[in-house]
Amino acid sequence: MKWLCYCVISIIANIKIGHGGIIILCTAFNSAPLRAPHQSTFQLVRPRRILHGSTPTAKSHSIASPSSLMSHQSSVEDPSQAQKECDHPHTRLWSSALNKSPNSHVHPSIELVIRPPSEGGTGIVAINDIPANTIVMSLRLEEVDMIDATSILDSYKLHSKQDDAVFNMLVEMWEKDLKPVKKSGEETQEGKRLAVLAGIVAHLQLSRYKDLSSSVTSPVEEGFALDESRRLGAFLDAMPLLPQHSTEVNRHPFPTHFLFWTDDEIEILLQGTIAQTKAREVRAGVGLIVREWSKSFLKEHSATVLQADILNAIFSAFASVLSRSFGDAAGRDLDGKGRMLVPMVDMLNHDSENPNVSWKWHVGVGDEEMIVEGKGDIAVTTLRDIRKGEELCKCYGWRPAWDIASSYGFAPRLVKERWECSVIPLFPAILDLAPDVISTPINNARGGASLDLLLEVNYGPLVQAVVAAVDASVEIKSKMNLNDDLANNSQMPIANDSDRPHQLNRLEVLSLFRPPPPQTVDAYPFPRRQPVVVVGTKIASDTDSHNLDYHRLAIKSILPAFRAAASAISQLRHNHENNISSPIEASKMAIAAASIDRNTDWDIPALCLISHGIDERIHTLLQDGKNAEMWLEKVASINSSEDRQSRVYVSRHGRDAELRVLECLRNEVAELNVKS
Ligand SMILES: C[S@@+](CC[C@H](N)C(=O)[O-])C[C@H]1O[C@@H](n2cnc3c(N)ncnc32)[C@H](O)[C@@H]1O
């Protein structure tokens, strides 16, 4: 079936290994504590006119820099341009949401600005100076047509006709898999909850599309989906239905999202970066869900909508939900609610380095029940004084550039200073762990080479052993009441880690995709997964000498994993040299990880491994970056669309961020190596 072929093409099998894993489908916005914001000295007023934006004059913006988002020309001189902007679905949504909601308010000093997706798309700007602590937006949730899965699925269940194949499937998915969210593995449910919301959006958008294009001769079928798509029409229109239905006025806002990249772009532009792993994960995850949903969506829509368009609608809905939905840790998640789409607040762009607004769920004291019911106000408050012309940006939550790209389709450019991550291979290729070196006598006798570390299948048990050793070392050390030697013995001051993102405190092992090495390319001509450890520190655009303590903490946090890896490698070598076939001993790895081995100081081999790994990563990133640029030069003559340009920024900024982290850490490891 054509549909299935299309889906299968986009499914690239990928596994996550290691500890805790990563939540692929993460929250788009920070959740809010349940306290009322500081009282603003400004009175909120309803806007007197329909707000419209204007197009910045500079055309050569990079998509990824928050500061580049801020250019704003506040008067629209070209009347046809002004008309276009008034016709834009975001402008229409803005005014229709306020018209529907007598209890929602927008500060008169803010305005929408409509820009092309390559310049960050729509945003909100200040048209006058606004002081700190001002509430600039206050939206009554029950009036502004927020979309969340629970409310919509609950209303469906109350509807007189419950014969909608898509809704029945989504209700089943929600009730079977998601209701008891608190039970176990809560993190893993995040992706599924997000998927159900995407399924609702795709179904309603397809229903709306059929409704708008229906005729007297082919009327659209009455039912819950049609009613809801009419009720939520303005909001659904602000999330375009399909890439091919975008117009000059309303460009598809997600051309940079990994779901819409070509296979070549994923393979070549992202080669060598961890963003490629994320892109494959997102595409594979969505591909699998699409395959599961195909029967129900085809039943409801294939009579009037092309299969390729249905598929695109689902992809668009995923991109919308990934990049616009609020993660709600305010308590509603725990009741099986949670992911929500809220108009207007979702026009705020992201700035992790210097955000100037934040949002809070605002209910009166003692009214917390309202949050469970999805009621109350979302209030957006200024964090500092905002100058006329500045764009209002919030921080979507700390995540490394590659992860931001996988949800939002852009990679932030470093402006001044921020926390960022890269990865370091646990077993760098330079160790020359090729089959003839490392294979055991038993494997040799069988004519096999099962310890060929160039083959991913052999990494699984080793990585698991490393992760288990690190876990065991934590226990050992807490029982023995020990801290980490490296930090304790160090002459350097220990960093105050209070602003270090908590995500960096756990060991995370991911797979990096590498081209097959020459030794095994003929037998296995597929990309290989190389296990890599995530490492993060604070990077700066100028000098980062004041961040040395953070770099030291970064190395310290990954050291136990590399001590365990060094112990595993040493055992493998020893076994090989002595013709021993016994497996490596996990307890030795744990003792190495905990740094309590009386005979060996594992810090030295571990730092050596880290150092080789960093050199290998820097080489890989630079080399693959050059290849990507050469490919770009070649294809530029054939296709140099704006969309491709935006994707190039994602690739370059993602690569730069990783390189910056590695360079900082390289110096720090050299320093520690000398000391040890
Ligand atoms: C919540 S929406 C914000 C409104 C959005 N600009 C629009 O046109 O609808 C998030 C999306 O805005 C864009 N975006 C947000 N912050 C950005 C930034 N700093 N640089 C580039 N694009 C950004 C990305 O396309 C992202 O997926």
Describe, in plain words, how this protein is organized in 3D.
It contains 21 helices and 13 strands. With 676 residues, it is α+β, with helices and mostly antiparallel strands. Strands 1-4-9-8 form a 4-stranded antiparallel β-sheet, with no helix packed on it. Strands 2-3-10-7 form a 4-stranded mixed β-sheet, covered by helices on one side. Strands 11-13-12 form a 3-stranded antiparallel β-sheet, sandwiched between helices. Helix 20 runs antiparallel to helix 21 (642-675). The longest helix is centred in the C-terminal third of the chain and has 34 residues, at 603-636. The N and C termini lie far apart (62 Å). The chain binds S-adenosylmethionine (SAM). S-adenosylmethionine is lined by residues 63-64, 66, 69, 120-123, 253, 323-324, 346-347, 349-350, 408-410, 412. Residues 108-397 form the SET domain. Residues 54-89 are annotated as: Disordered. It comes from Cyclotella cryptica. Residues 54-83 have a biased composition (Polar residues).
